[in-house]
Amino acid sequence: MNEIEAVDELADRVAPMIGRAVDELQIAAVLESQGFTDQVARERYGVKDVFALASVVFRHLPRDVEALPDAQRARRTFRVLSHGPLFLLPSLGYPAVYDWLGGLPMVRGLVFTTAIGWWWAMGMSLVAYRLLGHGLDHAAGRSLRLLGGIGLGVVAAGSLVIDTRLWVFCLAQMGFQVSSCVMVIYKREARLALLMLPACAGGLAHLVFDMMLVALCCGALSIVLVLVESWRSAGKAAPDTRKPPRMPMLLRLTAPSVAYSALCAAFLLNTDARFVLAELDLGLAVAPLVLGMGAVEWRAHRYSEQALDQLDHSRDVTAFRRCIQWLLIRELAHCLVIIGCIALLMLGVLAQFGLLTTRGSLLVDAHVLLGGVFFLGFVLMRYEGLRSSLVIMPVVVIANVVVNLVVPGYEIQVFLTGCAVLLVLFLLVSLVTAGEVRRYR
Asked: What is the dihedral angle through the alpha carbons of 70, 72, 76, 82, rounded to the nearest 10 degrees?
């Protein structure tokens, strides 16, 4: 029996023990419980360890796709679409923070906290979703509490190093990021919006009536409320009846996605941090992308659902590949159109008041393209294409930094070019990998 046949036989043997497998981690746990060791994996199946064997077995298991009822799908769509506007809510309090701290310290704190919070929240989410997928709800909640607390400590300590006045602002910003991460996992988006109402009302009061102290107090109240609610949500589950998977396995699964998130943050912030305090159109250039991120996530979900549906109904590999590639292009176009429409609406308002410049338009265009990059990144992350992303992203990020140092004054053009290059390269990689049937099994 060759190695492929041996893996097929093993997949058939463990399938009844696994049921509907969530990921490789679940299969690895079953294999270890059956006495499989790294040595057995190497000698009998030709892979380096049990985890690698679990990955191979996972691709040989059938996937049962259950269609969501229309009402449930509509609720999920609404929740996902709300993510973009939700993540913009704290920005209503930034003018009050600007008046309190000053422009430059605020930007430093904002960039530092966003850079840390971006990939930290990604790591928290991935660990929790893996554990929830195994029915380990208590372990998932405990991991969210632990990682969230560590993240708050890291940001508080780092902000003191940057500027001793920043720790309150950075702690509040990171508090929102980790809390929103928890509440999205537990589908508490509506409650998150409700708890952020004081911060939004205070921010608007400051803009209209110059009430800085009121805005800061209202913002602090909202952050405390969302922290308490996220802590409560993460602690509701009853104790697990099984031990959680080993932490090294969890780290191996999450590390590539966390690294990719960190690179995305570096690429975006390297340019946008320069324009937070610039002209209004430059400072708002990222807004269409943030508002449209829920739509990007939504279309990524729709791509996965339709791809698996095609897999169930296709009988010819060539036809399947053609359909999936067309589906990928169509969903990418949907993302670009949605974010583009938001951008056009914002540009139209700015132009109406004489606040739009050519540089502002170019920077907005760059963020629209970046929305397409993020969509393709979601797809590559879901279907084993993250390695390619981790090769492409560092090259573009480094090139972006180096060119800006060598030829200063062209940051927007360089960023736009980088976004276009990323979009083309990610699309080419996605088109090549999209039609490979093994990625959907």
From this structure: 90
Tokens of 305: 């659902």
Count of positions (residues) in the chain: 441
Give counts: helices (H), strands (E), the chain.
Answer: 19, 0
Structure tokens at 266: 């570096």
Rounded to a whole number of angstroms, the distance between the first and last alpha carbons of the chain is: 23
Structure tokens at 176: 């929102």
Cβ neighbours for 409, distance < 8 A, ≥ 6 positions apart: none
Compute, in degrees rounded to 10, the torsion defined by CA atoms 222, 224, 226, 232: -150
Q: Are 335 and 375 in contact (CB under 8 A)?
A: yes
CA 202 to mean position of chain CA atoms: 29
Q: According to DSSP H, which parts of 61-166 are helical?
A: 70-88, 94-101, 103-133, 137-162
pLDDT by residue (tens digit) across 272-313?
999 998 899 999 999 999 999 999 999 998 898 888 777 666
Q: What is the pTM of this model?
A: 0.83
The first and second tokens of residue 203, run together, are 């921010």
In 10 A of CB 299, how many CB atoms?
23
Q: Are 416 and 366 in contact (CB under 8 A)?
A: yes
Condensed to tens digits (0 to 9), the pLDDT of residues 226-268 reads: 999 999 999 988 888 878 877 677 777 788 999 999 999 999 9
- Distance, in Å, from the CA atom of 391 to the CA atom of 416, rounded to the nearest integer, reads 20
Indicate the angle between helix axes 70-88 and 287-313, nearest 10 degrees. Answer: 150
Instruction: Measure the CA–CA gap between 125 and 148, rounded to whole angstroms.
Output: 10
- CA dihedral sign of residues 72, 78, 83, 86: negative
Buried-exposed string 256-280: b where 16+ CB fall within 10 A, e elsewhere: ebbbbbbbbbbbbbbbbbbbbeeee
Distance CA 40, CA 407 (A): 56
Dihedral (Cα; 294, 252, 158, 191), 10-degree rounding: 30
Specify whether the CB–CB gap between 143 and 128 falls below 8 A.
yes
CA-closest candidate to residue 390, choices 251, 248, 262: 262
Nearest to 367 by CA among 297, 267, 435: 267
Residue type, 260: Y
Any idea what the Cα angle at residue 340 is, between residues 338 and 344, rounded to 5°? 120
Q: How far is 313 from 296, CA to CA, in rounded Å?
A: 26
Return the DSSP state at 211: -
